[in-house]
């Protein structure tokens, strides 16, 4: 995957281009943008998932182009470590914090400290809950991520075209500590539930509640274990799994490994998210059906533009002021559009846009 370069982006990614503001034209020599030596702390969750590495790299590069001094930290999915990293950043005198939270409810204390120091706080991709101290939110339309996944399965099985089924489906969701999880799952279930109610889709495991289908830490190995248990407990009479709702590519690959281990030679459609290189390879090989592509370069741009506006005392560009109530207030948000990608459009969406280098797929 490629590190963001604004001047490339404007030409290649339509959605990103719309999000760019005048600040996108700032100089790229690293010291004459609007940052003027101001400090940004970026707290990312983990390096085990490809997307966060690119988010971190893209944000760092874009902030540095604007003249900001950047501290970038990863906390290996340990919420308490993320809190300490943020405390350290506050101690270093950052002006802005950009945080992709590991646990959406563990940051209240540290964010109160941030506010005492007048730091602008941006919740990056994952909303931070139950605190007055988050100023803005940048993300994608998270409900739509789920509806794209659910719709893909319905269309793949032909349910929308009148196929009666019944088809066996199993459901997976992300980590309960991530605010996005319920948006993804509810978005997918809006599409799938009517077919479950109508008997065209059957969940043989009976596991349909978010708490039952959630995956701790978004961990593919945890999902693989759960899929194995489902297969050996509920698919013992020759039944086949015919579709799997999976929220994220790492989880999808865990599920596919479990199916593989149980002798599936043709994979049922398994969904995903993030357009990770390994999953795009699976899509090309017919092992994973689809992924939801979210252009993290565009998200970094929107976030940097927002910070630049705030620091310059201007109104940042917001396109949603109603969806994301964090339990304290509705957080003004800038949301981008996710895109459904499968074997028919990965070339145009991922390669031609420069998001993935074709050579990485070899
Ligand atoms: C992000 C997804 C990602 C997941 C696991 C979510 O908060 O929105 O893009 O797949 O976390 O890292």
Set down the secondary structure blueprint:
Layout: H1 6-12, H2 14-19, E1 39-44, H3 50-65, E2 69-74, H4 79-91, E3 96-99, H5 108-116, E4 120-124, E5 136-140, H6 142-156, E6 167-171, H7 180-197, E7 201-202, H8 210-213, H9 220-234, E8 243-245, H10 249-261, H11 277-285, E9 291-293, H12 296-311, E10 333-336, E11 339-341, H13 346-351
Parallel strand pairs: 1-2, 1-3, 3-4, 4-5, 5-10, 6-7, 6-8
Antiparallel strand pairs: 9-11
Beta-D-glucopyranose binds next to loops.
Give a summary of the structure in a few sentences.
The chain is α/β, with parallel strands linked by helices and 362 residues long.
Key structural traits:
alpha/beta, Rossmann fold, 362 residues, 2 domains, binds beta-D-glucopyranose, 3-stranded parallel beta sheet, Bact_Solute-Bind_Prot2, 11 strands
């Amino acid at each position: 995957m490629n590190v963001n370069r604004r001047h490339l982006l404007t030409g290649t990614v339509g959605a990103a281009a719309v999000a760019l503001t005048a600040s996108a034209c700032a100089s790229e020599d690293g010291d004459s943008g609007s940052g003027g030596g101001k400090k940004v702390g970026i707290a990312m969750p983990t390096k085990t998932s490809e997307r966060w590495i690119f988010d971190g790299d893209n944000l760092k590069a874009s902030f540095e182009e604007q003249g900001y001094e950047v501290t970038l930290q990863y906390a290996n999915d340990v919420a308490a470590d993320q809190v300490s990293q943020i405390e350290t950043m506050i101690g270093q005198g950052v002006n802005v914090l950009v945080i992709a939270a590991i646990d959406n409810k563990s940051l209240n204390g540290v964010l109160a400290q941030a506010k005492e120091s007048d730091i602008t706080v941006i919740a990056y991709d994952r909303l931070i809950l139950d605190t007055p101290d988050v100023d803005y939110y940048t993300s994608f339309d998270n409900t739509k991520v789920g509806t794209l996944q659910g719709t893909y399965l319905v269309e793949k099985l032909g349910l929308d075209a009148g196929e009666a089924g019944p088809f066996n489906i199993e459901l997976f969701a992300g980590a309960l500590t991530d605010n996005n999880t319920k948006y993804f799952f509810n978005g997918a279930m809006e599409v799938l539930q009517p077919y479950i109610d109508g008997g065209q889709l059957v969940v043989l495991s009976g596991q349909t509640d978010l708490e039952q289908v959630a995956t701790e830490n978004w961990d593919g190995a945890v999902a693989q274990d759960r899929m194995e248990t489902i297969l050996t407990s509920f698919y013992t009479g020759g039944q086949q799994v015919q579709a799997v709702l999976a929220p994220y590519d790492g989880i999808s690959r865990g599920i596919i490994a479990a199916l593989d281990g149980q002798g599936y030679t043709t994979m049922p459609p398994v969904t995903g998210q993030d357009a990770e290189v390994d999953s795009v390879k699976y899509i090309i090989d017919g092992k994973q059906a689809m992924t939801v592509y979210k252009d993290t370069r565009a998200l970094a741009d929107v976030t940097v533009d927002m910070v630049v506006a705030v620091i310059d005392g201007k109104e940042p560009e917001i396109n949603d002021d109603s969806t994301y109530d964090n339990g304290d207030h509705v957080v003004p948000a800038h949301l981008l559009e996710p895109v459904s990608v499968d074997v028919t459009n990965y070339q145009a969406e991922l390669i031609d846009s420069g998001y993935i280098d074709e050579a990485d797929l070899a």
